[in-house]
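Priority: medium. Attachment 1 of 2:
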């Protein structure tokens, strides 16, 4: 299996670290990537995310964890041709490279975790709601915002194992750009060009007899015989990520406890910054031309 622990370095990197230690130098002397600043960042550090995370919970889930991921990522790419690439570019660039699975995992986690936090409303004075046009886009696929909420949260709650659940918009059919819910386990990516590492199933519970047939990145997969395949696999669909929720336990354990995942998910839904979703979504012609529906929002448990 090519999926390594996110915190376990390959032998080559371990040797490099040992060499650096004997030389008295550190490959992390230059901080190539640093933890991105969020909106209202100082307030988040002091008070946490209103209604969602305490200051300690935010420190663990974002400040400490993101720094940990970036420390490892910086270590891997320092002094290489990839050192000036952003995490998103690294994800797409290494998705088809089994030997770079360790790099991919950290770059993808850096992108996913920041995408999650940057999609949260951090202003306690603002109540975020979908606009009328965005609500109509949602209704084209899910019939209503309430239906999307119920489907999305049940999908995330049922996810057995860590990962992310995404709301994405298909980008292949200009006439009908549907919204879909997509689960990615561990550090899997929804990005177009990284479909081979979407990891939409939990390999801990996946039927091992079918692994060889479905794996498209490992040395035992069919793709191992092809060195230059297009970034998008046959039958793949380009999607645009709109929002996501992080289901890794360290994100909610401090504030909600071991059995608090469902409560955390409900609080997260109430904290979505819908203006960020609208910045990314394509408003379809049907949604633009249709008459505004009377909005009904039920965000309670």
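Attachment 2 of 2:
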């Amino acid at each position: 299996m090519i999926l390594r622990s996110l915190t376990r370095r390959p032998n080559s990197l371990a040797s490099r670290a040992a060499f650096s230690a004997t030389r008295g130098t550190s490959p992390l002397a230059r901080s190539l990537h640093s933890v991105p600043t969020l909106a209202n960042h100082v307030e988040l550090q002091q008070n946490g995310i209103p209604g969602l995370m305490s200051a300690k919970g935010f420190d663990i889930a974002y400040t400490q964890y993101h720094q940990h991921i970036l420390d490892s990522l910086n270590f891997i790419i320092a002094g290489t041709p990839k050192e000036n690439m952003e995490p998103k570019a690294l994800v797409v660039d290494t998705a088809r490279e089994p030997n770079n699975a360790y790099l991919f995992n950290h770059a993808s986690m850096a992108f996913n975790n920041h995408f999650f936090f940057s999609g949260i409303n951090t202003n306690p004075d603002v109540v975020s709601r979908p606009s009328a046009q965005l609500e109509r886009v949602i209704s084209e696929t899910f019939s209503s915002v309430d239906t999307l909420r119920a489907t999305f949260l049940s999908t995330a709650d049922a996810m057995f194992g860590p990962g992310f659940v995404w709301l994405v918009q298909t980008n292949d059919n200009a006439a009908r750009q549907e919204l879909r819910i997509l689960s990615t386990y561990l550090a899997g990516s929804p990005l177009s060009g990284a479909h081979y590492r979407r990891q939409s199933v939990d390999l801990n519970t996946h039927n091992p007899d079918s692994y060889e047939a479905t794996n498209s990145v490992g040395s035992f997969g069919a793709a191992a015989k092809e060195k230059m395949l297009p970034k998008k696999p046959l039958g793949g669909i380009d999607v645009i990520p709109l929002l996501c929720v992080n289901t890794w336990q360290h994100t909610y354990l401090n504030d909600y406890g071991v059995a608090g995942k469902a409560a955390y998910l409900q609080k997260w839904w109430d904290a979505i910054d819908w203006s960020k979703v609208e910045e990314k979504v394509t408003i379809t012609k049907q949604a633009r031309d249709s008459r505004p529906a009377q909005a009904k929002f039920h965000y309670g448990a």
